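Hi both,

Apologies for the delay on this - the queue was longer than expected. I finally got the fe (ii) ion-bound model through. Below you'll find the protein sequence and the ligand SMILES exactly as submitted, and right after that the structure tokens for the full complex including the ligand.
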Amino acid sequence: MSSPLGTDLGPREKPLLVFGGIYGNFEALGALLHTAHELGLTAADMVHTGDVAAYCADTHACATRLRDLAIPSIKGNVEQQLAASAGDCGCGFDEGSQCDALSAKWYARANAQTTPELRGWMADLPDHITFQMNGVSCHVIHGGFSDISRFMFESVTGTAFEQEMSATAADCVIAGHTGIPFTRPVGTRLWHNSGALGMPANDATRRAWFSLISPHGSGIEIAQHAISYDAATTAQKTRAAGLPEEYARALETGLWPNTDHLPAAETANSGKELPTGSFVWQPIRVAAE
Ligand SMILES: [Fe+2]
């Protein structure tokens, strides 16, 4: 269970760039920072939803860059485990599954690349971040409120989303961890996942995902973006580091090595190119009697 440690960014007037799942992919992180610069956004206009390390080779370089730029970030399960020098990534994969076996390999490299200074930085990251935009309150978490490693995919039941959202009074929850972007209304509120930066969205494209949240009318606009980057170099570095070939191929093909932990609806969408687009939303306020 996460501690209640959190950071409030306060009211936001400028757009906020939300991204997560860098996964040790230094080339995708570089492309994102270039895009942010072109959009006129600084590090203070960005939020990372956790998992700076995972499948790709550059844990140390990515964590150092994120720390030195002081981009507001929360702990993912990966930061939580690395900070504690734990023995595995804490993803909760079934023992003996392919995900479990493959994750042991990237976690060992990520752990070896994490210096004591970086472990201390990870330990000090907040578990959640809040901010307000145009009267909309937003709560940034990693997986779920009940479990940092809960996989809240778009097709998960409404009851599960309502359960998770009962832990916050915020209008909008912004999460990461699952690697596929979506925006889903939950009753009168909203759940958004910006997808992953460092691994494709299992849609047969190599793209890296992030979101821009902006004031719009009397609410907000959430725009899901996908950018291209030098995935061939990332794949080559993954192989050179002795990491599983399955990850290198996933970077090149845009398809995950397996769909063991995916619900049926997301599995059925494997290999179908995800659209980008935006979602305009305003909270529904119930007038007091
Ligand atoms: Fe995660």
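Main takeaway for now: The chain has one domain: 10-281.

I'll put the files on the shared drive as well.

H.
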